[in-house]
Structures are given as structure tokens and as C-alpha cells.
């Protein structure tokens, strides 16, 4: 233990040499909340129907044992995950995760179907975010929801959207933290459409109807999430980036950027500064695209670090709601949460440990030599010693120690699940 402290003191000195105060940085890191997505815990199945099949252009592969099958099990797993992650965070719930004995459909959801989550969140000290669920449902017809030509289909989903806003408002009011309600619709076509315009117009009008009523923004704000393509919607997705950028900017909604929803070489890190200049705010789905999949577990790759640097260097953390979005059923699901969340925090820490003002000055002086020398050298600075100390201070396992705890939990809890 003293070893961790000693290493921290050494690291602190090294960072002080380049003008970075590590104690101050750790205090700032404490304010960064990550919204952990509930859906990694059960492969995006939810509790609306007993054996819900995942549709809507997204897919979870793998059959690792121990998935949660009830809200109780999911909460138990979440508690385990949060206990291995430093700091206080948020939970991102989808409508299909309602917790009630009543048989309710998506166009009937009410705040009361989520009271158990709210009570639990209060006890845990976590905030809540929300998402209406526009997939895995028979009313998703021909791959469409809000853009479907049949008004009956649209009306069903409009009602769901309106109700989701009431749930989010209730969550924000009860918890005392703004609940971000994120709208993502998979609507699209497998092959080349004749008419790309009319479905988008229908989607726009449906969204306008959903958002007609003004709600208290202290309790809830809405975000809209774009996507380039999905499985079965390869040629056309109604809610593209341009669509939602236009929508979000003109309707004063947050713009949600999912790291896996763009062309394979296109990155969201390069979009943040522009969106920040014009939008009310940003929601992130930190995720990892691999080939055609958008939802691999977040690892410490270049893009994650680039996203973190953009947020920190440009002072965008207060404008940005950081959420995660991945689902891997081939590994322990609690480990997936822990790895993805800790990586996201660690990337932000690493970005905070840069001498930002000095780096900006080098650039302003066009001293690109110094800029490169510094940014390269910084890669080898002992940020991990700062991170380990932070974990220890927060009472969570340091380094690989968390894995042992996940293994024990796996043996004692997950292995005996039906
Ligand atoms: C799908 C979107 C969306 C979902 C969740 C479950 O590609 O990223 O955010 O992953 O709503
Ligand atoms: Zn997403």
C-alpha cells in the first residue's frame, strides 16, 4: 500500500516538473460522472417480454453464463460493478428495463413502473439517464418506427416517446440530477431506397409531436442519436448524422454521438469541437466500432484517448454527458462494465494530466517541433501511478485486483443462476 503512495509521490514530482498538479487533477476527475448502460448486463434483452429477441439492426453475440434475468439480478450485478469503479456515477436505463408485475406495453409505460429503480438509485447514490426503446418489438414494422408510412405505427411510437419523457422527468425530479433521455431509432432499409426524403420528413414530424410539451429542463433534457447503418439497414438509415445534427440544432436538443455510428475511418473526437460551438450540449455513447459492429467493449485505444483530450483541452466536460454503449456476451458482463468504465475514466485522467496551456502556447507560436516532442514524451509519463493512487483513495481495487473480485462473484453468484 505504501508502495502505491510512494509511486504517486514520485509521479507527482514528475508532473510538477511540467507544471501539472496531480492533486488538483484528481479533484477534477472526481466530478466526472460516467453513465453506465444497464444493457451490458443482460445482452440488451430487458424485462418487457420473457424472452425478448434483440432486433433493430443491433446484435449481441456470445453466451457467457450468468446474464441477469430479472431487475433484482441486474441491480445486484450493477452494484458489484460500481463497487469496482472509483467515484459516483449514473445508470443509463432503457424503457424495456421497467420493473413491475403489471403487464404493460411500451405505449403504456408510466413513472410508477420505474419506482424501484429510482429507490435503488437513491440508496446507491447514482444518477439516472433514460432511453425510449424503439426496437425488439412487434410494432417495429418493416424495419421502421417513427418513419413508417402507416400512421398507426407512428402513433404507437409517438405515444411511447411521450411517455418516456414523463419517466425521465420523474427520474430527474426524484434523484435531483438531470436525466438525459436519449432517442435512437433504427429505422432504415437494407437496400437502396427510392425516397430518402419522405421517411425523414415523417420522422421529423413525429419527433416534433413527441417533444411538443415543454418539460422542466432541470429534470430532463433530450438527446438524439444518429447512425450510419445497422444490420439489415445497410443502405439507408433515416436518422443519419445530418438528420440529427439538423434536428438537434434547430430544436435545441442535445446531440448524441456514438463512437461506432460513422464510417470506419471517421471519428467522433474530431466532431466534438464543432458540435460544441453550435449545440446546446452533447451526449456521448463511448463505444468501439470493429468492422460492421458498433458496440465492442471500450478499450484504451487511440480514439478513446482522443475523445478524452478533446473534452478536457476544450473545456467541454460540463457540456457533455458521457455515456457508454457496448454489449459483449462472450466475456463476463461485470468485467465488461468495469473495463469500459475504468478505461473511460483513465483516458480522461490521462488527458487532464497534460500541461494544456503550455501545449496550446506551443501551437500558437507555431513551434510544432516542441509540440510533437512534448506530446510524444507525455505518452510515457507515469499516469498509471496517479490512477492507482486514485483507486486506492476511493477504496476500489487497484490494478488487476478487481478481476479477482469478479471471479469470486462469478463463482458464488453468477454460476448458480438459472
Ligand atoms: C444502437 C445505438 C443505441 C443502442 C442502445 C441500446 O446502435 O447505439 O444507442 O445501442 O440504445
Ligand atoms: Zn449508442
UniProtKB/TrEMBL annotation:
It is an enzyme of class 5 (isomerase). Keywords: Cytoplasm, Isomerase, Manganese, Metal-binding, Rhamnose metabolism. Its EC number is 5.3.1.14. It holds the Pfam family RhaA. GO terms for molecular function: L-rhamnose isomerase activity; manganese ion binding. SUPFAM superfamilies: Xylose isomerase-like. The keyword tRNA-binding does not apply. InterPro entries: L-rhamnose_isomerase, Rhamnose_isomerase, Xyl_isomerase-like_sf. One of its GO terms (biological process) is L-lyxose metabolic process. The keyword Lyase does not apply. It is found in: Cytoplasm. It comes from the Bacteria. One of its GO terms (cellular component) is cytoplasm. Mn(2+) binds at residues 261, 293, 295. Pathway: Carbohydrate degradation; L-rhamnose degradation; glycerone phosphate from L-rhamnose: step 1/3. Its cofactor is Mn(2+). Catalyzes the interconversion of L-rhamnose and L-rhamnulose. PANTHER family: L-RHAMNOSE ISOMERASE. Belongs to the rhamnose isomerase family. This is L-rhamnose isomerase. It comes from Lactococcus lactis subsp. cremoris (Streptococcus cremoris).
Amino acid at each position: 500500500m505504501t508502495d502505491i503512495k510512494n509511486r504517486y509521490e514520485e509521479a507527482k514530482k514528475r508532473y510538477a516538473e511540467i507544471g501539472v498538479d496531480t492533486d488538483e487533477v484528481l479533484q477534477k476527475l472526481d466530478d466526472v460522472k460516467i453513465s453506465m448502460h444497464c444493457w451490458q448486463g443482460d445482452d440488451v434483452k430487458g424485462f418487457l417480454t420473457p424472452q425478448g429477441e434483440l432486433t433493430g439492426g443491433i446484435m449481441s453475440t456470445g453466451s457467457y453464463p450468468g446474464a441477469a434475468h430479472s431487475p433484482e439480478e441486474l441491480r445486484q450485478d450493477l452494484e458489484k460493478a460500481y463497487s469496482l469503479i472509483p467515484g459516483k456515477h449514473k445508470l443509463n436505463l432503457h424503457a424495456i428495463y421497467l420493473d413491475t408485475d403489471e403487464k404493460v406495453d411500451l405505449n403504456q409505460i408510466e413513472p410508477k413502473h420505474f419506482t424501484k429503480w429510482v429507490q435503488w438509485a437513491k440508496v446507491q447514490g447514482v444518477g439516472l439517464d433514460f432511453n425510449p426503446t424503439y426496437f425488439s418489438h412487434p410494432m417495429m414494422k418493416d424495419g421502421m418506427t417513427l418513419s413508417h408510412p402507416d400512421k398507426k405505427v407512428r402513433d404507437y411510437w409517438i405515444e411511447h416517446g411521450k411517455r418516456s419523457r414523463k419517466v425521465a422527468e420523474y427520474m430527474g425530479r426524484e434523484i435531483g440530477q438531470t436525466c438525459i433521455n436519449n432517442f435512437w431509432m433504427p429505422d432504415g432499409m437494407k437496400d437502396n431506397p427510392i425516397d430518402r426524403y419522405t421517411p425523414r420528413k415523417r420522422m421529423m414530424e413525429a419527433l416534433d409531436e413527441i417533444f411538443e410539451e415543454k418539460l422542466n429542463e432541470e429534470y430532463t433534457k433530450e438527446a438524439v442519436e444518429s447512425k450510419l447503418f445497422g444490420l439489415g439497414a445497410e443502405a439507408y438509415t433515416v436518422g443519419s448524422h445530418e438528420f440529427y445534427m439538423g434536428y438537434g440544432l434547430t430544436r435545441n436538443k442535445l446531440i448524441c454521438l456514438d463512437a461506432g455510428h460513422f464510417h470506419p475511418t471517421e471519428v467522433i473526437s474530431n466532431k466534438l469541437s464543432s458540435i460544441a460551438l453550435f449545440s446546446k450540449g452533447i451526449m456521448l455513447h463511448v463505444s468501439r466500432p470493429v468492422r460492421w459492429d458498433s458496440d465492442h467493449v471500450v478499450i484504451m485505444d487511440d480514439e478513446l484517448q482522443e475523445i478524452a483530450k478533446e473534452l478536457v483541452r476544450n473545456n467541454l466536460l460540463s457540456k457533455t454527458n458521457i455515456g457508454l454503449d457496448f454489449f459483449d456476451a462472450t466475456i463476463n458482463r461485470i468485467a465488461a462494465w468495469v473495463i469500459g468504465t475504468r478505461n473511460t475514466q483513465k483516458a480522461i485522467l490521462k488527458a487532464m494530466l497534460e500541461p494544456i496551456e503550455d501545449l496550446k502556447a506551443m501551437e500558437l507560436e507555431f513551434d510544432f517541433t516542441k509540440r510533437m516532442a512534448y506530446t510524444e514524451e507525455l505518452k510515457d509519463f507515469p499516469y498509471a501511478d496517479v490512477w492507482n493512487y486514485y483507486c486506492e483513495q476511493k477504496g476500489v481495487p487497484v490494478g488487476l485486483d478487481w478481476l479477482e473480485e469478479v471471479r469470486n462473484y462469478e463463482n458464488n453468484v453468477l454460476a448458480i443462476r438459472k
